[in-house]
């Protein structure tokens, strides 16, 4: 004799079979034997999900036994009343407690109960979803999420980083679960507190034809070189602009792609000479050996500050230099992701004149101390010593920030930054940009 199945949820197919057998007037014992399920489980399933059908009260007795003496006698009040007392058909008192197989159901004036497989399955799925969506945290865990975790996210604007910091205390919070609970509004942290709550605009399709002669250094050449040299170290180079004005300063950014490590320098003006001077200074600090190692591949955009290829090749003679298509910043998406972190502290639309190199070194240190999912839970500082020694990092004024001290909101650079933002952006623009002042 086969052993009966236990502790297995009913499926829609199983429920349909139960409904069919009830319609055929089969007993619960016969159904349980066919399904190899415990008789009590079949009975509980039917009783839990049966649906009541009330007969019309027109020219017939009301289904509620209390109706005569009840003060509430509205039309079909029995459908909503919680104190209803129903006179059941004698056949419903005994198993299977439903009318599916009854021969008199067409003419019966009693309240009828039916088992419907589809309705039963929908009710089960909805109750399962509701049960799964409940918070199952201890008071301590809930307190940690609504206080310590929230503060970390508001400061560093990264759920991934904040979870690593919190989980180091012995917790085991899952990032996918946290995102769902924030979406449902179950935590103190709101969706609007997250850095990417705004909808991404659709990319504008632009002409990708080159306007300058950079044969052998195009994005197609870059892809070919990467294919032939998959282990080559790649660095990306770009600038971050402020408001448009004459001789406006910009931030010059360099990223070692494999470890997401970024360097940020201030240029007094956005031109090729400023870039060349800063690269020469960087070469003096890093030394030829490190320069050759991290600049094996150099990918940058087609901007005026980078287009003097001869100057770049003179400073970086061993680098394979390539250019993205015009208006195609997504082709160097790695450095653009770090730019997004910069913009969390210094948003678009403000002047960059008030920021010093010391400010940028501090910002750079915090960005490079942020844990990244793409680095398997490490931060760029954890991996940079394979490329740049600690002594050289000290010369660049960069240092690892304690993981619970990482801040990537405007307050990182003090009142100067907050006042600068308020000077150039109104309240509505600040709210739309999701800036936390």
TrEMBL record:
BP-aspect Gene Ontology terms: DNA integration; transposition
Domain Integrase catalytic: 226-388
Domain of life: Bacteria
Record SUPFAM superfamilies: Ribonuclease H-like (SSF53098)
Matches recorded under NCBIfam families: transpos_IS30
PANTHER family: TRANSPOSASE, TRANSPOSASE INSI FOR INSERTION SEQUENCE ELEMENT IS30A-RELATED
Protein name: IS30 family transposase
Taxonomic path: Bacteria, Bacillati, Bacillota, Bacilli, Candidatus Onthousia
């Amino acid at each position: 004799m086969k052993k009966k199945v236990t502790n297995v949820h009913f499926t829609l197919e199983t429920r349909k079979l139960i409904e069919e057998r009830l319609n055929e007037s089969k007993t619960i014992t016969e159904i349980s034997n066919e399904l190899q399920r415990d008789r009590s489980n079949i009975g509980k399933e039917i009783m839990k999900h049966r649906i009541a059908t009330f007969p019309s009260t027109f020219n017939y007795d009301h289904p509620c036994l209390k109706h005569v003496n009840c003060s509430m006698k509205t039309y079909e009040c029995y459908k909503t009343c919680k104190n209803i007392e129903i006179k059941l058909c004698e056949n419903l008192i005994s198993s299977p407690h439903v009318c599916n197989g009854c021969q008199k159901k067409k003419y019966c004036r009693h309240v009828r109960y039916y088992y419907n497989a589809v309705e039963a399955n929908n009710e089960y799925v909805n109750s399962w979803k509701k049960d799964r969506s409940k918070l199952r945290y201890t008071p301590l865990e809930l307190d940690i999420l609504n206080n310590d975790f929230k503060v970390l996210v508001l400061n560093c604007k990264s759920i991934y980083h904040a979870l690593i910091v919190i989980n180091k205390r012995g917790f085991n919070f899952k990032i996918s679960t946290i995102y769902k609970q924030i979406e449902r509004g179950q935590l103190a942290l709101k969706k609007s507190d997250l850095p990417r709550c705004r909808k991404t605009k659709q990319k504008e399709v632009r002409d990708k034809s080159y306007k300058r002669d950079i044969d052998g250094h195009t994005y197609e050449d870059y892809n070919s070189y990467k294919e032939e040299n998959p282990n080559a170290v790649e660095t990306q180079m770009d600038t971050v602009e402020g408001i448009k004005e004459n001789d406006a300063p910009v931030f010059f950014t360099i990223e070692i792609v494999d470890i997401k490590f970024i360097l940020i320098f201030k240029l007094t003006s956005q031109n090729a000479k400023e870039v060349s001077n800063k690269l020469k200074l960087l070469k003096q600090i890093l030394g030829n050996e490190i320069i050759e190692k991290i600049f094996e591949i150099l990918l940058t955009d087609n901007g005026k500050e980078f287009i003097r290829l001869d100057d770049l090749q003179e400073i970086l003679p061993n680098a394979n230099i390539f250019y993205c298509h015009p208006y195609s910043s997504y082709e160097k998406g790695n450095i653009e992701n770090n730019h997004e972190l910069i913009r969390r502290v210094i948003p678009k639309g403000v002047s960059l004149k008030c920021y010093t190199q010391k400010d940028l070194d501090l910002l750079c240190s915090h960005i490079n101390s942020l844990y990244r999912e793409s680095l398997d839970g490490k931060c760029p500082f954890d991996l940079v010593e394979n490329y740049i020694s600690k002594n050289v990092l000290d010369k660049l004024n960069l240092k690892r920030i304690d993981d619970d001290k990482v801040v990537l909101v405007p307050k990182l650079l003090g009142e100067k930054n907050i006042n600068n933002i308020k000077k150039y952006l109104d309240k509505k623009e600040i709210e739309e940009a999701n800036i936390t002042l």
